[in-house]
């Protein structure tokens, strides 16, 4: 086969088809390489699509994790840090001096009210008690003797008065002399004074007996102080004085007992919330929940029982106390706890995960995923925090889908690929686990 061609110096020459093919092969290879390069650049994430991936963004969808906006009843609470406080604290001291002869408990034991704690040597006090008892017996005898003397003198007085009366009649008739009559009258008067003296003696003996009995009671009280008992139910602390030491009256603290069933949780809230607290307290008892710093701890439930009578001017807060039964003794005096004061329940609240909220120059917003898998920037107003969720007052409706992870690469109208909480694809258009994890590393969102 011959091909007609013009080449060279205007001369007509004939060349074979095979020669033409060998000439065109390098040109075809270069053309195909250029086309392939343009196609790759057009399809890459950085090669087009602009701000939101409007052009050529099919393979460059931003991987995100999403959650559905829900509507539910949530508690209205005040969350603060509080401190556990013993219901009562008793400092035990000796009320009489002496040697500490017995200790009836171990440090840290729980004791009941009335249980023995310490015994102090009581021999000297027992001797004083015995002496007082003997004095009472002596004074009783003295009183009895005084009463007998009074009775005798009264009988003698009656006889003498009757005799003097008879002799006065005989004096009128001249049977006896005037001297005899006056002697009998004087004897009767002397007996009258003896009766008065006997009555005074009885009063003195009665007073002595009362004093002796008081001394007995005092000695009995002092003797009872030698057996020190627990005044409350509670837990014992560190033993300050060991067995065998001599203690003085009201000088040394032997031990401290704290009552922890029930127990207080003390906390402070801003004064701005005092009005709400007073309003809700008038309607019903307010629930207080406390949880220790240990994440595995279970919340304890109590009731608000105390509101201080003044606001602390230095901090602008007011002190409150919640009372907890604490039967399982999980709350311990001195602990710091997370306190939640529940005021009421809010129905039909719009709730989203806390990770969905973003903050910009114009305030708080979220990325809402449209049905076509593009995102919309939606301004919102948040109010309450409930665990890991936020209550949205305005801006969202139940059932909408919001982005919880991957917001850093988003812009208005960006197209997204929804992945699950582990970083893997959750539907069509999703990316693999590796790419999702690399983009969202360090974030932890709820599974959808």
Given the helix and strand composition, which structural class is it? alpha+beta
Q: Beta-sheet strand percentage?
A: 25-35%
Rg result: 52 Å
Number of strands: 22
Kindly, what is the distance between the CA atoms of the first and last residues, rounded to a whole number of angstroms?
71 Å
Low-confidence stretches: 1-17, 30-58, 427-448
- Largest sheet properties: 6 strands, mixed
**Apparent shape:** elongated
Give the ordered list of helices and strands: EEHEEEEEHHEEEEHEEEEEEEEEEEH
| Global mean pLDDT | 80
Give the count of structural domains: 4
Helical fraction equals 25-40%
Number of helices: 5
Can you summarize this structure?
Helix content is 32%, strand content 35%. It is α+β, with helices and mostly antiparallel strands and 448 residues long. It has four domains: 3-43; 58-69 and 357-440, conserved putative lor/sdh protein from methanococcus maripaludis s2 fold (Beta Barrel), CATH 2.40.420.20; 78-88 and 256-346, Elongation Factor Tu (Ef-tu), domain 3 (Beta Barrel), CATH 2.40.30; 122-225.
């Amino acid at each position: 086969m011959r091909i007609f061609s013009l080449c060279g110096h205007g001369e007509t020459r004939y060349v074979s088809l095979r020669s033409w093919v060998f000439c065109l092969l390098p040109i075809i290879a270069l053309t195909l390489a250029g086309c392939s390069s343009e196609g790759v650049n057009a399809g890459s994430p950085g090669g087009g699509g602009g701000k939101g991936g409007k052009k050529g963004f099919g393979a460059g969808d931003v991987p995100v994790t999403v959650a559905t906006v829900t509507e539910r009843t949530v508690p209205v609470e005040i969350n603060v840090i509080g401190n556990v406080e013993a219901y009562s604290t008793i400092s035990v001291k000796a009320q009489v001096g002496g040697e500490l002869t017995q200790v009836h408990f171990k440090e840290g034991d729980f004791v009941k009210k009335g249980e023995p704690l310490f015994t102090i040597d009581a021999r000297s006090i027992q001797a004083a008690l015995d002496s007082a008892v003997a004095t009472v017996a002596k004074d009783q005898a003295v009183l009895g003797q005084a009463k007998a003397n009074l009775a005798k003198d009264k009988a003698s007085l009656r006889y003498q008065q009757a005799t003097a009366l008879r002799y006065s009649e005989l004096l009128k008739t001249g049977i006896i002399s005037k001297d005899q009559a006056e002697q009998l009258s004087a004897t009767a008067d002397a007996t009258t004074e003896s009766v008065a003296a006997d009555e005074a003696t009885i009063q003195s003996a009665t007073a002595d007996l009362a004093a002796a009995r008081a001394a007995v009671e005092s000695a009995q009280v002092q003797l009872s102080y030698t057996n020190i008992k627990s005044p409350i139910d509670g837990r014992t602390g560190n033993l300050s004085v060991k067995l065998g030491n001599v203690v003085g009256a009201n000088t040394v603290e032997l031990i401290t007992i704290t009552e922890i069933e029930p127990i207080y949780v003390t906390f402070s809230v801003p004064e701005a919330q005092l009005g709400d607290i007073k309003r809700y307290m008038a309607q019903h008892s307010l629930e207080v929940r406390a949880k220790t710093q240990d994440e595995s701890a279970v919340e304890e439930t109590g009731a608000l029982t105390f509101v201080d009578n003044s606001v602390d001017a230095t901090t602008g807060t007011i002190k409150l106390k919640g009372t907890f039964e604490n039967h399982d003794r999980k709350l311990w005096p001195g602990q710091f706890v997370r306190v939640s004061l529940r005021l009421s329940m809010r129905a039909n609240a719009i709730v989203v995960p806390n990770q969905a909220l973003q903050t910009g120059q114009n305030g708080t917003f979220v990325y809402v995923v449209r049905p076509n898998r593009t995102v919309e920037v939606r301004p919102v107003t948040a109010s309450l925090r409930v665990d890991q969720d936020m209550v949205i007052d305005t801006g969202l409706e139940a059932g909408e889908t919001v982005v919880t992870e991957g917001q850093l690469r988003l812009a208005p109208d960006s197209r997204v690929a929804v992945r699950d909480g582990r970083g893997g694809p959750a539907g069509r258009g999703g990316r693999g686990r590796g790419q999702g994890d690399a983009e969202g590393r360090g974030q932890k969102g709820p599974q959808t």
